[in-house]
Request: fold
Amino acid sequence: METIPHYFDFFRAFTLQWHITERCNWSCKHCYREKENMKELPFAKLCDIFFQYLDLLKALNSPKGHSYLNFAGGEPFIRKDFFRLLKFVNKYNKGRFTVGILTNSSLINEKNALKLKSLGVKRVQLSLEGMQENNDNIREKGSFDKVIEKAKLLVNTGMRTAVSFTLTRKNMADVPALVQLCEKLGVGKVGIRRFVPIGKGKENKFNLLSPEELRKIYHWKRKMRIELRAKHSKLHIANGCEDGIFNSALTGDMAHRKVCCGVVEGRTLSLFPNGDVLACRRLPIKVGNVLQKSLLEVYFSSDILWQLRNLNNAHSLCQKCRNFKFCHGGALCISHAYFNQLSAPDPQCWRVFKKLPLQTAFRRWPEKKNLHISTAFSPSFTNEN
Reply:
């Protein structure tokens, strides 16, 4: 095991993204899922896993109220015991962490929206993939109006509501209008996230923005963020963990805090319905299973996780860059999905590439001969060595 990195010395927040089911009532074109028939654990085992999460927070010495437990799917509301699980979690939370839900919103109604608040849920994230035409083409016909309706409902109940937008070449022109819409709806946060071509999204890998297109979007985001702050808008344009290639060191906007890959910083894990632990939902590398080892044991004993956290494994082109100390090599998930290599540079980084490079440009990972990880993607995910 590697020596604990320096950033653990000021560790603050940890996020577990818990996919309690892979079943979903929608079929979005860019979805990360590859199969829906994954075995789901019974309620009693979910309770045991929750206590594992509490043990991990304690071991990480995460300050009270600074960490996150996000329930996702598939569509989490499909599980009939979801509200029972929320009630159980709320019983033992005691302000230790924030509970959030990532949902397509289709199964939310006024009754269960109010119930969410009583069960300690602090925020709900919905997804829109552009304005009506683009969104309904990517998700399903009529989904745009449904999400708008549910966003209004959640905002009216006082629930902190966020909208996630996955950025592609097809919907990038919708960004300004979508931000205006979210502000009008009273949404508190909109996340403009980079597209990762995994799962069903592999078929749309050519919709990735070019490095220059992404750079322009980042500059627009910065300008809009400043304008929203100036007029004291409720809406905030959030940074994603893949946004480290554009940061305050380059823009002079110190309100744009440092962001970089949560996997590299050791502040995130994802959990699948069958107990598999992934480094990240968008970096589908299996690092353990909670039926065999606890979350705490996986977090501290997985050689794969320690290698992913080791900045010495970043590509030499990244390590020589003046931005490396801020971005730590860019979006690991996108490099992995695009090149099938983990230490390759971020393919959308304009400091390295003038245009999207050939996907065969980097053929092996890691560069260090003494490290060995299989990165071939399959529905069953990679296995820990």
Summary: The radius of gyration is 20 Å. The first helix runs from residue 43 to 60.
